[in-house]
Design brief:
Elements: E1 4-7, H1 13-22, E2 26-29, H2 38-46, E3 52-54, H3 73-86
Length: about 90
């Protein structure tokens, strides 16, 4: 797979790591959590949670730049991870 999955928080990330690796993704661990979502932080206080990013690879323009173009095939690819997490093949 072209994308990389980055797990940003501890807790239930083992399930995401396993699902991503089983689907052929490279998993990169972040040295420190990113503050990408205040909503996530609120919910994570109440329930077990994890947060992950689907990357575009090193040779793709970053988001929030004029050169960025969303890679449509990644929708299907990241859905494969979610399907694994809920036990759907």
């Amino acid at each position: 797979m072209d994308g990389n999955v980055q797990c940003a928080s501890m807790g239930v990330t083992d399930d995401v790591r396993l699902a991503a690796k089983e689907k052929g993704f490279i998993v990169h661990e972040l040295a420190a959590a990113l503050r990408g979502s205040e909503d996530y932080g609120h919910y994570a206080k109440e329930v077990l949670a994890t947060y992950f990013y689907m990357g575009n690879g090193e040779n793709h323009p970053p988001v929030h730049t004029p050169e960025y173009d969303f890679i449509d095939t990644q929708i299907k690819e990241v859905c494969e991870i979610f399907k694994s997490l809920v036990g759907v093949e």
